[in-house]
Amino acid sequence: MIGEVENVVPGVDRSFTLNLKPGAYRLSCPGGTTSATGFLTVTE
């Protein structure tokens, strides 16, 4: 795990920042019902 934000619910804005090296990353939202997983590609 690289980073995490908890208690994100509808109607509440949350943000956080990560410094990632170029590569492919898998995203996961445990307990999510729509778009609970995804992929992110970071380029230089």
Structure, explained:
The protein has 44 residues and is mainly β. The protein is built from no helices and two strands. It has a two-stranded antiparallel ribbon. Strand 1 and strand 2 form a beta hairpin. It starts with 22 loop residues before the first strand and ends with a strand.
Topology:
Layout: E1 23-28, E2 37-42
Antiparallel strand pairs: 1-2
What keyword list fits this structure?
44 residues; mainly beta; globular
Brief digest:
By secondary structure, the chain is mostly beta strands. The chain has strands spanning 23-28, 37-42. It starts with 22 loop residues before the first strand and ends with a strand.
The oligomeric state is single chain
Compute the CA-based radius of gyration.
12 Å
The profile of the biggest β sheet is: 2 strands, antiparallel
Biggest sheet strand line-up? 1-2
From N to C, what is the helix and strand string?
EE
Q: How much of the polypeptide forms β-strand, as a percent range?
A: 25-35%
Question: Averaged pLDDT, please?
Answer: 84
Q: Indicate the structural class.
A: mainly beta
Given as residue ranges, the uncertain stretches (5+ residues, pLDDT < 50) are none
Alpha-carbon distance between the two ends: 22 Å
Percent of residues in helices comes to under 10%
Number of helices: 0
User: Strand tally, please?
Assistant: 2
Q: What does the overall shape look like?
A: globular
